[in-house]
Design brief:
Layout: H1 11-18, H2 24-27, H3 43-54, H4 56-66, E1 80-91, H5 93-97, E2 105-115, E3 121-128, E4 136-143, H6 146-157, E5 162-166, E6 171-176, E7 179-182, H7 185-191, E8 196-197, H8 198-209, H9 217-220, H10 251-267, E9 272-273
Parallel strand pairs: 4-9
Antiparallel strand pairs: 1-2, 2-3, 3-4, 5-6, 6-7, 7-8
């Protein structure tokens, strides 16, 4: 298996923000360009992502992943995929910029949850496979089950709402109509236990991130997630443009898939995102 998530970030920026151990080459793979139309998170895409997650090669890689720290023997890991794939959305650049009618978030990838025989969990990030119409591929394995867990929490808290992530502060929310409600403690610190209005949330993220959008002086200096010719440090994720529909994958995500695969093919490892296990707020 050759596989390895800024408002409306590219995948590479998100990987940098989340601490994925894939190297600098991956970061350079994602453009700052405006997003093109991509596949939606419809039934066919969700089924294809599930197929990629349950592929025998993926399961073999999961066995090694779960056994990496000696918690379980590789031969005894017996990984399985739990539940259906879920769409993972991230705060969109157009929303941050204040564009009229912009959706609050855009789709970055689909995630499936894997469980080992000893109870470990991991999230498999999947993207469309370049050159193969309708096929999806696993591009990253991350510890924990944040994506599925917060998707479920959002459905309980605000049925029919849109669950999304603000990676700059690692906060998860659910939005429906004019309400934005927190799903974890990072989000509570940002918007309070009772949440906020969409307008107030836009005001906050615009103040925090608008000067870091692609094309800004901040981004040109390379200070946003390592982008730009003058980049020396990756202090935070850039904000990549994305579709305003909230269903299309970002151009950065699609381009980063190829970069992620190339990095992992050279390194011979699966990227690991270490993240804290938190209770859902």
């Amino acid at each position: 298996m050759t596989s390895t998530s800024s408002p409306a970030r590219s995948l590479a920026a998100a990987l940098a923000a989340a601490g994925v151990l894939a190297g600098a080459a991956l970061l350079s793979a994602a453009p700052q360009a405006a997003a093109a139309d991509g596949p939606s998170a419809g039934p066919a895409a969700l089924a294809a992502a599930h197929d990629a997650a349950t592929d025998a090669t993926t399961l073999d890689t999961l066995s090694r992943f779960f056994a990496r720290e000696g918690a379980v023997a590789e031969a005894e890991a017996a990984p399985r995929i739990q539940g259906a794939a879920v769409p993972v959305r991230t705060l969109s650049a157009q929303f941050v910029a204040g564009e009229p009618g912009a959706a609050i978030a855009s789709l970055d990838y689909l995630a499936s949850t894997a469980v080992s025989s000893d109870g470990q969990k991991a999230s498999l990030w999947t993207l469309p496979e370049p050159g193969k119409d309708g096929a999806w591929q696993v591009v990253n394995i991350a510890t924990g089950d944040d994506e599925a867990r917060y998707t479920a929490a959002g459905a309980r808290k605000l049925p029919g709402g849109t669950v999304f992530h603000e990676p700059q502060i690692d906060a998860w929310y659910v939005q429906k109509g004019d309400r934005v409600l927190p799903l974890d403690q990072d989000a509570v610190r940002a918007v309070g236990k009772q949440g906020t209005t969409v307008s107030a949330y836009r005001t906050r993220v615009h103040a925090a991130y608008a000067d870091k959008l692609p094309g800004s002086a901040y981004a040109r200096k390379g200070e946003a997630g390592g982008y730009g010719p003058g980049a020396k440090e990756r202090s935070g994720p850039a904000i990549a443009a994305a579709s305003t529909t909230g269903t299309a994958l970002t151009a950065g995500s699609l381009a980063a898939a190829a970069g992620a695969l190339a990095v992992l093919a050279l390194c011979g490892v699966t990227a690991l995102r270490l993240r804290s296990r938190r209770r859902t707020g």
